[in-house]
Sequence to fold (969 residues):
Amino acid sequence: MNSTPKSFSEINSGLNSRSLTCVKLVNSYLENIQSQKDLNVFINLFEEDALKRAVEIDGRLKAGTAGKLAGMVISVKDVISVKDKPLTCASKILSGYNASYNATVIDRLLEEDAIIIGKTNCDEFAMGSSNENSFYGPVKNPVDKTRVPGGSSGASAVSVASDMCLLSLGSETGGSIRQPASYCGITGLKMTYGRLSRYGLVAFASSFDSIGIFGNNSSDIAVLLEVIAGIDKMDSTSSNEPVKNYSAILKNNIDPAKVKIGYAKEYFEEGLDSDIKNGILLQLDKLKKEGFEIREISLPHSRYVIQTYYILTSAEASSNLSRYDGVRYGYRSQNSSSLEEMYINTRSEGFGEEVKRRIMLGTYVLSAGYYDAYYRKAQKVRRLIMNDFENAFKEVDFIVSPTTPTTAFKLGEKVDDPLSMYLNDIYTASVNLAGIPAISIPAGKDRNNLPFGLQIMGKKFDEAGLLAMWNEIKY
Amino acid sequence: MESMNVLNSKYEPVIGLEIHAQMNTASKAFCGCSTDFHSSPNTNICPVCLGYPGALPALNEMLVDSILKMGIATSCRVREESIFARKNYFYPDLTKGYQITQFETPICHGGFLKINLKNNETKKIGITRIHMEEDAGKSIHDFHDDSSLIDFNRCGVPLIEIVSEPDMNSVDEATRFLQKIKQTLVYLEINDGNMEEGSLRCDANISVRIKGDKKLGTRTEIKNLNSFKNVSDAVSAEIKRQISLIESGEKVSYNTMTYNAKDKKTTATRSKEEAHDYRYFPEPDLVKVKVTKEKIENIKSILPELPEQKVMRYVTEFKLPSADAEEISHDKDFAGYFERVVSELKLKNENNYRTAGNILRTDVRKVLNDRKISISEFTVSAKVLAGLAESVTSGSISASASREVFNEILFGNTDDEQIKILENSLKKYSQVSDTGKIESLVKKILEENPEEVKRYKIGEKKLAGFFVGKIMQESKGKANPKIVNELLIKNLED
Fold:
C-alpha cells in the first residue's frame, strides 16, 4: 500500500515545493483503493474524472489560480447527489438513476477545486449500524476484516482509515458518522442541524439528517467546513448563523481553566463494555489533570432516546421514501397488471428488509388512532430531551461520553437481531434528537485490540470547540 | 311519496363548500419553476417539483402574500405562526408520495363572506379556514389505449383551500357563495376565476334534516365540481337523493361521491371504511411560516378595492342606483371599463355617469352576450363611449337614436374610425328641437289620422302614444320627444 500524506498541510507543502502533484496524489489513492478492493468501499469510483480534474487543478496550481481545496481528495457517501453520476443510496430501488444536480455541499467543494474520488458504500438509505444493509454488499472493517466497520457511513470511515482519500463526506441521522469512526479508529464530526445544507442529501429523517466529515486531524476538517458550511436558500432548515473561521480558532490553544466538561452518569450504566468504560474514564482523568473542570451532570430522559428516535425517524422515513414508486426513475417491477400491483411489487422488490421494516414502523406510528400515542408523544419526549441538553449546557461547555457501548462486532452477528443493532445508537442518537454537534475521537483499544471512540457533544454551532477539544485527547 | 315540492318544504339541506383556488404567482409554491398554464407538457419542472432524491422545498413568499389577501378580505384571523404538513398517499402524478399542505394550523381561520339573497337580504357565510397547499401533476388517461401519460407542469403550483362552515341551506345560496368567492379572488387579483381551466375547483359537503332540527344529518362529499352549473346540478341531485333515501326509511351513509353530468346523478365512490388514511404529520423540510403584524398591515394597505366597496363608491361618488352599481361591479374588468369611460367624460356629472352606466348595462352587455366575449375583447374605446353618453345626456341625440349610433360604432376597427363614425352619426341623428319644424310634423300626422283624432277628443287619451310613435317615425327618431309631447297635446287640445 502507498503511504499517502496524512494532512492537508502536508499535501499543500508538497504541492508548493512541486514534490507532489494532484495527479500523483490521486494515483496513490487509486492504487490503495485497488489493493484493498476486498473491503468493498466504493459503489462508484470516479477514476477517470478524478484524474482529469487532477490534471486541470495541477494547471491552476501552476498558474496560481487554484481554489482553497486544491489537493484535497474526498470520497462521498452515496446518499449525496453528484451531478451526472449514479446515486444509489445502496438500494436496488435507485438502480439506473443518475443525479441531475449537485448537492449544495458538492457545488461548494468543487468550486474550491476539491477532487471527488468516488461514491462510497453505506447502509441502504443510511438505515443501519453495520453497513451490512447494502444492495452492493457489506463493507469490511480494515482493522479486522471479519468485523463490520459500523454504519451507516461505514465505507466513508473505511475510505479515510485506509488511505483511499484525505477526507470523506458522510451523513448522520442517529450516529451514522460517529459510530463507524469509533469502530474504525478515526475521527468523525457530526455538525449542528442546519449548519450544512441538506439540499442534495437524500432524506432519511429530515429533522435529524445532517452531513458530516471523517478526517485524520482537526485542521483538515476545519478547512473543508469553512468552504461547505453556511445558509442555503435551497434548504429552508439551513441556518443563517455566521460561519466561523475554524482554522483561525484552532490556532489558539484551549485554556483548560476556562472549560467545564460534563459527563452524564446515564451514559456509563449497564450495557457499556468495561474496557470502553475504563478507557473513557481514564481520558476524563487526564483532562482533569490538565486543568479542565470535570462535572457530573444528568440527562434524565436518556432512557427514552432509542424509542423516541426510532418512532420519529421511521415516521419521517416512511414519508420520505414514498417517492420511490417506480413511476419516474429507478427500479420498476415488470409484469404488474395494475397500478397498485406495480407499487407493491416495485417497493417489495426494490427495498431491502431493514428499509421495509422502518417504512412499516413509520407508517404504523402515523396511522389514524396511533398518531397520538406514538408520533405525538415521541415529539413531546424529543422536546424533553432537547431541554435536558439545554439545561446541561448551562452548566458545562462540553459533554463527554463513550461513542458506542461496544467495539466493532462480527459481520453477520446482529443481522437477525434488529433490536440489539438499534442499541448501537444509544449514546449517539440523543445528539440528533437535540440537533447539537458532536465528535467521535479515537480514545483507546479494547482487549481485542479493537479501537473505540470518545464522544464529545457541544453547544449548538460550537463545531470549533469540538475540533479544538480533539487536540486535547491523546491516547 | 309526497311531491318534491312538499318534501322540499319539509326538509332543509345543509351545505358547506371546500374551494381550491390556484394562486397566480409567477413561480410554483416550493421551487422556482414557472406556473404558466400554456407551456408544453413537462417543461416547467425541476428536481424539487419532480421529487428527485435529495431535493427540498423552499416556500415562495408570494404565496403567503396571496393567501393573506384572501384571509384579510374575508375577515379571517391570521396565525402569527403556522406550519406545513404532509398528506401522504400514492398516485403517479404526486411526485413525492405526499402533498405539502397545512393541516392542524391553517394560516387563516374564522372569517366570513356576505352573500346577497334573492329577496335582497344578505346572509353571512362562515369561513372555517383557508390554507396553503401544492397542486399535483395531471394524469392523461385517454391519449393511449394501453398507457397513461403524466404532465408534471402543474405539480407544485400553489393552491389555497377555502373551507366554509355548513351555513348554506339551498342550492341558490351555495352557488351565490361560490360566485362571491370567485368574485373576491378575482378582485384581489390572486386567481383568474376560470373554473373550466381548473384554476378554481369545488367540493361540496351536503346533508339534509327535517326543518327545525338542530342536529345535522349524515353528510356526503361530492368531489371535483368544475363549473357553476355542475355545482348547482350536483348539489340539487344529491339533496334529492338524500331526501328520497330518508323518505323510504333508509339512512344516508358517509360517502365520497362523484357527479356525472350526463345523467345528472351522484354516485358513491368511497365509503368511510375505505377512506384514505393520509397520515398527516408536520412537514420537517419547511420552517414555520411567520406572519408579523407589520406584514398584515402592509398587505391591508395594498389590498385592492373589494366588490362591496366598489358598489358603495359607485353609489356615493357616481350617484348610481345600487342595483346598477351591483350590476356593473359584478365583474371586475367590466367595472374597470366603466371607470375608464367615466374618466373620459368631459363633463363629470351624475347624469353622464348614469347614462354611461345605462349604455354599459344594456348595449355593451348585449354585444358581450351575443358575441360570447369578455369585456377585455370588446373593441369600442372608452373615449368613444364617453362621447356617446354625453351626446345622450346633453339631448343632442335621443336615447333611441343612441342605440343606432352604438351599433354603427361597432363597425369601427380603430379608435380613429370609431370617432369618425360617432361624429358622422351624431350629425345624422342629431335631435330636432326646432319647434317650428316639429309643429309642422305634428300637424301633418294629425291631418293624416282624422279618425284617431276624433277618438282622442271623445276621451281615448291613450292614443297620444300612437301619435308620438308616428311623429318620431316620421322624424327618423330625431325629433326631441319632450317637445313632440308638448306640441302634440297643445294641437290636440286646441
